[in-house]
UniProtKB/TrEMBL annotation:
Main location, first listed in the record: membrane
Start and end residues of each Outer membrane protein beta-barrel domain: 7-164
Signal sequence, start to end: 1-20
Organism, as annotated: Undibacterium curvum
Key words, A-Z: Signal
Official protein name in the record: Porin family protein
Pfam families, per database record: OMP_b-brl (PF13505)
């Protein structure tokens, strides 16, 4: 699946190479949110960081790392993380406001510890997301987003972006 996503990203890059680059093509950001995993009692706080490159006003690629949750299940402490690469489709509604669609590939990792012993497991797969972004200035924006990293996991987040 990663090969298919890489090929799709390469085709997107090649197909837009003749178009002019947008100003402030590189960007970084961070977010904070809430993760719900089926089977856990309540939502858990998430936070993450991301960086990307905007090829034009409609296409970007992004790398991200997110702490999805930390929780205790009885005496066992569990934390879940997400490492992801994705392609963003961007629809400008106005000069400042955009709607974002995301298709990506991620690795979800869970680490568990119990009385000095620990173990981990991971799962790789595709994920999707939708959101909106508002540009306050050419460099500073705010983003609200919903992602579905796995079939049993949902994440809502609010973040800031800085373009350079």
């Amino acid at each position: 699946m990663l090969k298919k996503l890489s090929i799709a990203a390469a085709i997107a890059v090649l197909s837009i190479s003749a178009q002019a680059q947008t100003a402030n093509a590189f960007y970084v950001g961070s977010d904070i949110g809430s993760t719900k995993v089926d089977g856990l009692v309540d939502n858990k706080v998430s936070y993450g960081a991301f960086g990307g490159y905007k090829f034009n006003e409609n296409v970007a690629v992004e790398l991200a790392y997110r702490q999805l949750f930390k929780t205790d299940i009885g005496p066992v402490s569990v934390d879940g993380t997400q490492t992801a690469v994705s392609v963003l489709g961007i629809v400008p509604v106005s000069k400042e406001f955009q709607v974002i669609g995301r298709l990506g590939y991620n690795q979800l990792k869970a680490n568990a510890s119990y009385r000095g012993s620990s173990g981990s497991g991971s799962q790789n797969g595709t994920f999707v997301g939708v959101g909106v972004q508002y540009q306050f200035t050419a460099n500073i924006g705010a983003r609200l987003e919903f992602q579905k990293p796995a079939s049993d996991t949902k994440n809502f987040s609010a973040g800031v972006t800085y373009s350079f």
